[in-house]
């Protein structure tokens, strides 16, 4: 009740008392009794007014104190925290790989001519030594015939020179001929012998060129390309014209998968490591391979280590040239931890995380490792028992007071039935 309500009431009562005194002057006892009653009523009204006033003041003081306390509580930020998770002892890394056949080669011609016939097209599986194509080169055939004729002439001359040499050597024993005649006969024999050897080499050369008219498979494999057709001019590269590659062959029984391993994993990626390959065309399947060798050198441009993984492919279902994801399980570092990426603070001093220590924030420098997208590996800077603040404000500083939010109750955590 305010002052405005109390004062009119008091004035009304005083007027009523005054009126009573005016209308009853004859009775002194009644007047005295009425005066006491008025004072009693006035005292009661004053006490009520005082009580209301004291209660209002007390309520205001209490409300002000509560407001100050609430304001102080709101000034301390409430944060959520997580505990670093220890990294697994075996870390899986996934890298892109290029699938290549164990052996692949273009098949070139070794003699000039025209393609007479081809016997296999792309996709054909052939055996080593199987005839792939024939080349018609009549000029080489004629050169072979000429070389053989020259060889026959040289052999005839050599035979005559041999007879002459033997005859002169026999006549020299009886001094029927001079030593000069014997020497001439021996020299003629040696010269004809050298001519025979040269002509024999020419015959073998042209025989080889004639044999190159037939193109054979150099190994067991599959034809991956045919770049010529019947009647095409075949150039063996004996002049300035480019050589003609007739076929391309690959050996898909064993595949080589080349992987560029980042430098940070180069020490753990050693020969003998088991790898698993996954390909988009085989969902839900994995193919096992083994790391057989590395380049033992870091590429200056990419800062990666070239590694080769061999995969058995007896059925040929894996195709050379395919793209594969290679999964390696490498030994992990013992002191590494995993944190959500939203715990990181990027400061000019370097990467930091905020931890809660005695209800105060503390900024710790950390060194990142691998980035997993939503989480990141921390190589150094943590012990594993810290309470790391998630999504810390950019304005947070060392020593700032914080309070940890209460964990939210999960559905069904209460003991009562739903």
Task: Write the topology of this structure.
Elements: H1 3-23, H2 28-75, E1 78-79, E2 81-82, E3 85-86, E4 90-108, E5 113-118, E6 125-126, E7 131-136, H3 138-173, H4 179-211, E8 214-216, E9 221-226, E10 233-234, E11 245-262, E12 274-278, E13 287-298, E14 304-312, E15 323-331, E16 337-340, E17 344-347, E18 350-357, E19 360-365, E20 367-371, E21 375-380, E22 388-389, E23 403-404
Parallel strand pairs: 1-23
Antiparallel strand pairs: 2-22, 3-16, 4-11, 4-15, 5-7, 5-10, 6-9, 7-8, 9-11, 11-14, 12-13, 12-15, 13-14, 16-21, 17-18, 18-19, 20-21
N-to-C terminal Cα separation, in Å? 49 Å
* Quaternary: single chain
Could you tell me the strand content as a percent range?
A: 25-35%
Pick out the low-confidence regions: 1-14, 16-27, 409-418
Total strands: the figure is 23
Average pLDDT level = 82
What portion of residues is helical?
25-40%
Widest β-sheet, arrangement of strands: 4-11-14-13-12-15
Rg, alpha carbons: 54 Å
Reported for the largest beta sheet, the result is:
6 strands, antiparallel, barrel
Could you say which structural class the secondary elements and strand pairing correspond to?
Answer: alpha+beta
Strand/helix succession:
HHEEEEEEEHHEEEEEEEEEEEEEEEE
| Tally of DSSP helical segments | 4
How would the global form be characterised? rod-shaped
């Amino acid at each position: 009740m305010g002052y405005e309500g109390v004062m009119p009431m008091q004035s009304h009562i005083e007027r009523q008392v005054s009126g009573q005194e005016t209308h009853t002057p004859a009775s002194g006892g009644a007047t005295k009794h009425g005066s006491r009653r008025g004072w009693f009523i006035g005292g009661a009204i004053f006490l009520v007014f005082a009580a209301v006033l004291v209660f209002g003041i007390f309520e205001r003081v209490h409300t002000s104190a509560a407001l100050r306390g609430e304001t102080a509580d709101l000034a301390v930020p409430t944060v959520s925290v997580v505990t670093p998770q220890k990294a697994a002892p075996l870390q899986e890394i996934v890298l892109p790989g290029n699938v290549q056949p164990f052996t692949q080669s273009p098949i070139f011609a070794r003699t000039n001519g025209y393609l007479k016939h081809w016997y296999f097209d792309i996709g054909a599986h052939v055996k080593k030594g199987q005839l792939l194509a024939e080349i018609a080169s009549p000029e080489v055939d004629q050169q072979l015939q000429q070389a053989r004729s020259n060889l026959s002439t040289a052999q005839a001359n050599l035979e005559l020179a041999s007879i002459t040499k033997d005859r002169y050597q026999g006549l020299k024993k009886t001094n029927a001929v001079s030593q000069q005649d014997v020497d001439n006969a021996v020299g003629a024999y040696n010269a004809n012998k050298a001519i025979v050897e040269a002509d024999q080499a020419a015959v073998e050369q042209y025989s080889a060129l004639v044999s190159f008219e037939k193109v054979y498979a150099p190994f067991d494999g599959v034809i991956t390309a045919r770049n010529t057709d019947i009647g095409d001019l075949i150039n063996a590269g004996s002049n300035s014209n480019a050589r003609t590659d007739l076929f391309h062959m690959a050996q898909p029984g064993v595949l080589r998968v080349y992987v560029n391993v980042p430098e940070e994993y180069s020490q753990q990626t050693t020969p003998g490591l088991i790898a698993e390959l996954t390909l988009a065309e085989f969902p839900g399947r994995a193919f096992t391979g083994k790391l057989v060798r590395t380049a033992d050198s870091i590429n200056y441009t990419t800062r990666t280590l070239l590694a080769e993984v061999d995969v058995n492919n007896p059925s040929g279902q894996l195709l050379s040239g395919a793209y594969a994801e290679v999964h390696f399980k490498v030994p992990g570092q013992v002191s590494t931890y995993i944190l959500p990426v939203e715990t990181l603070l990027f400061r000019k001093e370097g990467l930091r995380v905020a931890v809660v220590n005695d209800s105060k924030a503390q900024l710790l420098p950390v060194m990142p490792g691998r980035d997993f997208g939503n989480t990141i590996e921390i190589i150094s800077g943590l012990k594993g028992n810290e309470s790391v603040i998630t999504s810390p404000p950019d304005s947070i500083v060392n020593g700032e007071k914080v309070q940890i939010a209460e964990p939210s109750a999960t559905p069904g955590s209460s003991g009562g039935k739903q």
